[in-house]
Specification:
heterodimer; A: about 210 residues; alpha/beta; Rossmann fold; 5-stranded antiparallel beta sheet; 5-stranded parallel beta sheet; globular; B: about 400 residues; alpha+beta; 11-stranded mixed beta sheet; two-stranded antiparallel sheet; about 55% helix; binds adenosine-5'-triphosphate; binds magnesium ion; membrane (chain B); cell membrane (chain B)
């Protein structure tokens, strides 16, 4: 379902990235690991259509993502790709559930399952809270819920466990896996966190051996 | 969720900032609202009150003062004129109609004006109750006078000498109310009308009971063999030639002065216009400052919001939607400012009118809404749009990947 071929990207002449080909079916999981500065976030941004590769193509379903531009790309991303960032980045003027509804609004979805999603992630009781009143772990779960609000085909997570303890790190990885399975979505986690390795079997290593 | 709600949420997340911006804009717009309201009603009222009066003749002095005192009853009269001169003038073939006025007294600040029934006909006055005066010391109250003083048919009162409310009382003959006029929204509402004879007799020394029982004159000048005076005359021309010849003819006579209401009023508006322009300039300056304030607030908020904007893009917002998001914020802000401003303007005028029960602005109404006020809303929205253009453009160009990788 996701296929990445011959990707090449560079910010400038000194930072060039050779990105390994990726093939991922619906419901499959992939871990991209690499040390700091190896280009993990860069790859994730390319996969999410936030950066354009200089070469190669990213294909999601029948759509060649790397050839979309403008509002078309934005709408496609909003509908089909859920991105979980290292920091939660919840929009602070909005409540938890409004954050989800905003994601629905931008792609014209109804968001009928928003509340179920919040229940499953254990933050239903916080649905009317502002982000400033949430704990770090709760905020992280809100950002996961928001990434899933439109039932994406591809879930991208950038260092989702970086600021969490062992226990919570395991919970978050499990959550992402469960939700991806449930929606039959492909899941890619990008991390330098060795703890995640134990949970996901398929690996790609950026910038040589770790 | 929709774009308007989204912008609204961001606005109320900063209540102080938003409130101050709205208030500043509202202040500027309130001034404009008050100006528009006063100007419109003033002009309307002034033209209405002067309708049917082609020329005012009185004692020499300021022509504007003569008009203000005799037509609008807001300034002091220029003095009195000899009734013989007045009667001579009424025989002029260029004069179609002439109404004498005698002034000098008041009751509780409301002017007592001596005249004849033609004056009532001039304004097409109707009666709420009772009828016009027939005998000396019969009076008819304007609608507002009756309401404010709580007086009705058959009540009596003693007038005071002079035109302001603090003058000393006549201790002679009481006035008796024979009628109350219905509300007209014109100058009659605030007058106490009576016969010329009443005004004369109240200033005479000694009582002559035969005179007090005789009928007063209904039209034209009172019959008398004494040397009497009136304050001024309201004239109607017989034909257009009169407009050219009559004022010149009257002004050349040493004792009399003629003034045209329409001419004097346009002169007055010209004089007031300078002041109005000044206040208008001030209001425009405030509005520009408010627009700048909104621009600065939006621009500053962008710095902290670039992240939010980038996140919105990852959620599927197009750059166009981000542009709209910011513009909407500016427009909502100014729209609210306009509504609050118009409300403040009306409230301010209402208070102003309440505090000046008898002055020139007492006849104004704060409950009148003009089409121009819709223009105020329109202009305000334009200010909001212009102020938010540059911030919106910056939002439009947000580089998502760069924004998100920056921590
Ligand atoms: N906008 C940019 N312009 C130029 N160089 C950049 C830009 N963004 C990232 N880089 C460089 O590209 C390299 C890879 O960055 P990237 O953020 O992908 O690393 P990473 O693997 O995610 O690291 P970390 O684990 O620390 O998050 C770094 O050397 C970084 O300095
Ligand atoms: Mg990174």
């Amino acid at each position: 379902m996701l296929s990445v071929k011959n990707l090449k990207f560079q910010y400038d002449s000194s930072t060039k990235f050779e990105i390994p080909d990726i093939h991922l079916d619906a419901g499959e999981e992939l871990l991209i690991i690499g040390k700091s500065g190896s280009g993990k976030t860069t790859v994730l941004n390319i996969l999410g259509g936030l950066l354009k590769p200089q070469q190669g193509e990213v294909k999601l379903g029948d759509t060649i993502l790397s050839s979309l531009t403008g509002a078309k790309l934005d709408k496609f991303r909003g509908k089909n790709i859920g991105i979980v960032f290292q920091k939660p980045h919840i929009l602070s003027p909005l409540t938890v559930v409004e954050n989800l509804k905003l994601a629905n609004f931008f792609v014209g979805e109804k968001g009928a399952q928003n509340l179920d999603l919040l229940k499953e992630l254990g933050i239903f009781d916080k649905r009317k809270s502002k982000v400033t009143t949430l704990s770090e772990g709760e905020a992280q779960r809100v950002s996961i819920a928001r990434a899933l609000a439109n039932h994406p085909k591809l879930i991208l997570a950038d260092e989702p466990t970086a600021s969490l303890d062992d226990e919570n790190a395991a919970i978050v990885v499990k959550l992402l896996q469960d939700q991806a399975k449930k929606f039959n979505a492909a899941l890619i986690i990008v991390t330098h966190d060795q703890r995640v390795k134990d949970h996901i079997s398929k690996h790609i290593i950026m910038g040589g051996l770790v | 969720m929709n774009m308007i709600k989204l912008s609204w949420k961001y606005l109320i997340a900063k209540p102080l900032n938003t409130g101050l911006n709205i208030l500043l804009l509202a202040l500027g717009l309130a001034i404009i609202t008050v100006l528009i309201l006063i100007q419109d009603q003033f002009e309307n009222k002034m033209t209405k009150d002067a309708e049917g009066v082609d020329l005012v003749v009185g004692a020499k002095g300021s022509p504007l003062q003569l008009i203000l005192s005799s037509v609008y009853h807001i300034d002091y009269p220029t003095g009195n004129i000899d009734m013989k001169d007045a009667m001579a003038l009424s025989k002029n073939r260029l004069v179609k109609n002439i109404i004498p006025l005698g002034m000098g007294d008041n009751y509780q600040g409301y002017r007592i004006v001596g005249t004849n029934h033609d004056y009532l006909a001039l304004y097409d006055a109707g009666f709420e109750s009772g009828e016009a005066w027939r005998k000396p010391f019969d009076v008819v109250l304007g609608f507002e006078v009756a309401k404010k003083l709580g007086l009705g048919l058959g009540d009596t009162f003693i007038g005071s000498h002079g035109i302001g409310s603090s003058s000393h009382e006549h201790d002679e003959h009481p006035y008796k109310i024979t009628g109350v006029l219905s509300e007209k929204g014109n100058v009659l509402d605030k007058l106490i009308l009576t016969s010329i004879e009443s005004v004369w007799y109240s200033h005479d020394e000694g009582h002559d009971h035969d005179k007090f029982e005789a009928d007063v004159s209904i039209t034209g000048f009172p019959e008398t063999d004494e040397d009497r005076e009136v304050t001024s005359l309201l004239l109607q021309y017989r034909n257009p030639i009169a407009a050219v010849q009559l004022p010149r003819f009257i002004n050349s006579k040493s004792a009399l002065q003629a003034a045209s209401p329409s001419f004097e009023i346009s002169r007055l508006f010209e004089l007031l216009g300078v002041g109005v322009k000044l206040i208008q300039g001030l209001a425009v300056a405030i509005i520009i400052i408010a627009g700048l304030g909104i621009f600065i607030a939006l621009f500053n908020s962008l710095k902290e919001r670039k992240y939010d904007l980038a996140v919105m893009r990852t959620l599927g917002a197009s750059s166009g939607q981000l542009f709209i998001h910011i513009v909407l914020e500016g427009v909502i802000l100014t729209l609210l400012g306009a509504i609050v401003g118009i409300a403040i303007g009306h409230l301010f005028l209402a208070v102003l009118v309440m505090q000046n029960e008898q002055g020139a602005i007492s006849g104004l109404s704060a409950a009148v809404f003009l089409q121009e006020e819709l223009w105020i809303v329109g202009y305000a929205v334009i200010v909001g749009f212009v102020a938010s253009l540059i911030p919106a453009w910056t939002a439009y160009q947000t580089d998502i990947a760069k924004q998100l990788t920056k921590s």
